[in-house]
């Protein structure tokens, strides 16, 4: 196994989805791609990929946006992990999370998928839940709005003003995760309870 990291931004392909809450993972990958100085190119594993290094002399990373729909992200993720010889403990899924407030980042390894079908499909394809997740908070749907309708809508006007900062923070979280590890990243991005 190599010491390369596979960083996957979850979302749906196509311009009509590109600004949806569900695609915040892919938006964060665009920020990471600009940091490694690369542009996405098609890969045979049904994904758009950028290869590079995070930081000067930093770890080698493969940034990937599956070109499948969110609910079937597992095939492209598993295909890329095999192609680049990357073990699940070096896979990071960056995804939207309704169970944490908008403008919040949380990091974890393993655990449940919380009803997130993209994560469920990745866990099935990798045959383990033990991969890293950078959870980007998009908040809960208002009132009785259906969750699927909510995540498949664009961010609201107030959220759009904050979004560049959130994406920058998500990219920072990924960078810290690969350079200093999960604990250091959690200490920086998880608020300390009084």
Automatic annotation (TrEMBL):
Top EC class, one word: hydrolase
Query: Which residues of this UniProt protein bind tRNA?
Result: 17, 69, 71, 117
- Top-level lineage group: Bacteria
Q: Where in the sequence is the active site?
A: 22
* Signal peptide as annotated in the record: none
Task: List UniProt keywords, sorted A-Z.
Answer: Cytoplasm, Hydrolase, RNA-binding, tRNA-binding
The record's catalysed reaction(s) read:
an N-acyl-L-alpha-aminoacyl-tRNA + H2O = an N-acyl-L-amino acid + a tRNA + H(+)
Pfam families per the record? Answer: Pept_tRNA_hydro
Mind telling me which residues the site (Stabilizes the basic form of H active site to accept a proton) is annotated on? 96
Q: Which InterPro entries match?
A: Pept_tRNA_hydro, Pept_tRNA_hydro_CS, Pept_tRNA_hydro_sf
Q: Name one GO molecular function term.
A: peptidyl-tRNA hydrolase activity
Record PROSITE patterns: PEPT_TRNA_HYDROL_1, PEPT_TRNA_HYDROL_2
Per the UniProt record, the site (Discriminates between blocked and unblocked aminoacyl-tRNA) maps to: 12
Per UniProt, subcellular location reads as: Cytoplasm
E.C. number, please? 3.1.1.29
Family statement drawn from the similarity comment of this UniProt entry: Belongs to the PTH family.
Q: How would you summarize the oligomeric state and partners of this protein? A: Monomer.
Tell me, what does this protein do in biology? Hydrolyzes ribosome-free peptidyl-tRNAs (with 1 or more amino acids incorporated), which drop off the ribosome during protein synthesis, or as a result of ribosome stalling.
**Which PANTHER family does this chain map to?**
PEPTIDYL-TRNA HYDROLASE (PTHR17224)
Q: What protein am I looking at?
A: Peptidyl-tRNA hydrolase
Q: What is the lineage of its organism?
A: Bacteria, Bacillati, Actinomycetota, Actinomycetes, Micrococcales
| Designated gene of the protein | pth
């Amino acid at each position: 196994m190599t010491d390369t990291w596979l960083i996957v931004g979850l979302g749906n392909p196509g311009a009509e989805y590109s600004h949806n809450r569900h695609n915040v993972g892919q938006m964060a990958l665009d920020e990471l791609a600009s940091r490694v100085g690369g542009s996405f190119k098609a890969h045979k594993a049904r994904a758009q990929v950028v290869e590079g290094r995070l930081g000067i002399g930093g770890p080698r990373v493969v940034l990937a946006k599956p070109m499948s729909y969110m609910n079937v992200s597992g095939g492209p993720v598993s295909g890329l992990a095999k192609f680049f010889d990357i073990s699940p403990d070096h896979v990071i899924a960056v995804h939207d999370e309704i169970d944490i407030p908008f403008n919040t980042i949380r990091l974890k390894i393993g655990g449940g998928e919380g009803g997130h079908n993209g994560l469920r499909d990745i866990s099935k394809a990798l045959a383990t839940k033990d991969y890293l997740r950078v959870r980007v908070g998009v908040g809960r749907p208002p009132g009785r709005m259906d969750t699927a309708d909510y995540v498949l809508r664009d961010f609201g006007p107030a959220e759009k003003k904050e979004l560049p900062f959130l994406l920058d923070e998500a990219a920072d979280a990924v960078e810290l995760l690969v350079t200093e590890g999960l604990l250091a990243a959690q200490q920086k991005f998880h608020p300390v309870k009084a």
